[in-house]
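Hello,

I think I submitted the adenosine-5'-triphosphate job twice by accident. Can you confirm which output corresponds to this input? Input:
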Amino acid sequence: MSELLRVTNLAVRLPTGVRGEIEAVKDVSLSVRRGERVGIVGESGSGKSVTGRSIAGLLPASPRVKVTGSIEFDGQELVGAGPRAWQKIRASKVGMIFQDPLTFLNPVMRIGRQVEESIPAGRARSREVNAEVLEFLSLAGLDNVAGLAQRFPHELSGGMRQRVLIAIAIAKRPELIVADEPTTALDATVQQRVLRTLDETVSELGTSLILISHDLAVVASMTDRIYVMYGGRVVESGPTTDVLNSPQHPYTQVLLRSVRSLTDDGVELYSIPPSFRAWLEDQPSASAFDEEAAWPVNATSGKGGSPDAA
Ligand SMILES: Nc1ncnc2c1ncn2[C@@H]1O[C@H](COP(=O)(O)OP(=O)(O)OP(=O)(O)O)[C@@H](O)[C@H]1O
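Support: Only one job matched these inputs. Its output is below.
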């Protein structure tokens, strides 16, 4: 698999208030190969969304937003790229799926038209467009697509709207989809169905995926590799099974323990490897993360060492 995306030493400063600023992302490096699924996991405020939005060119448009480092997409440097270059990338190379479809969907435009607008212009002229729109809606796991295409976003359920976002994202035939908490707003069963659809769709199209979630179970079930973020930094990365079986960073260990508390609440886990379950069984219940003791460890999993030794 050749490399599609390489992010190196990415730092993002965002304005807060009149003069203040926050360094939301600090020195993040990551990579995605063609067809690979990569997870970014971490608690709220850890910098996952800002990282994802940087990659999709969707940070707030303000001269006070400062991005440094490098985002190389298919050999093209995007940090410092002009609006036209970004527009091109977003139109056909990178699709983004957000947590809240209603903020993304146009409330007064029919669903079919919104999918159609996402089809790159070169392909969008023929009579086949309508058929293509229906095909993308079906691919995203929706039924009765002809009728659905005529409906407006508020007429659909949350799960259906999220599938429409998947259809819009794949209609561009992007090389990469960045899905930011795509199922967080949905209840557990709908969440699983939408995740399965996303999983099947990217597999069918061979699209690379960056899946962003605070929920380690969601990311574990769908990705080949994981980056764990804390405080704007990547604190641990590695193949998903290695990170789950042998978490090196204390923060990752706390995240893993919190997955167990989800199971305690009766929430279904996705496909957690049995060895990970065994590790969880040996852990004390979720405890506070001792930041001072953990910092500034920057661990790469899968290079030996037991979780207890970290
Ligand atoms: N538009 C913005 N303007 C100013 N600060 C922002 C903006 N967006 C995010 N931040 C700040 O940047 C930091 C990282 O936020 P980010 O949204 O990337 O975190 P996250 O890990 O995705 O969390 P969540 O899951 O809650 O979105 C946070 O401190 C957040 O408050």
